[in-house]
Amino acid sequence: MSQPASNEQRIKAVLQGMRRAERDKAGRLSRSTDTLSLIDGASYGSTEDAQRVLDWLGRDADTLATLRSEHLLDVGETICIVCNGCGGDRAALSQWLNGSHAQLGGQTPRQLLRDGASARLLDAARACFAG
């Protein structure tokens, strides 16, 4: 049986997921003709990303403590997609996290996390914030 991940390990896994999201976004933008959008993309390794993770852990540390590493990668990517989709607006982010959504079968994102359905949550975030 594996040891539970430390907070530091959880943060690192979530940040890896965020990097994955930013790489995907940069790849999509590089295929577009809008060079300014590519330049304007989120920076890698930014302190803002780390702050997003810490904010998330502060609100939902108990849920994240139960998730395996592969789920934490999905959570990181979800955080990035949702934060970018909400334009960094914390109230909008909180509303999305706590609201029920048709893409989630009427469940909230927090409920899906508690059920370990991080891949389903990631798919819903992509659908909600496509672009």
TrEMBL record:
Domain of life: Bacteria
Protein name in UniProt: DUF2384 domain-containing protein
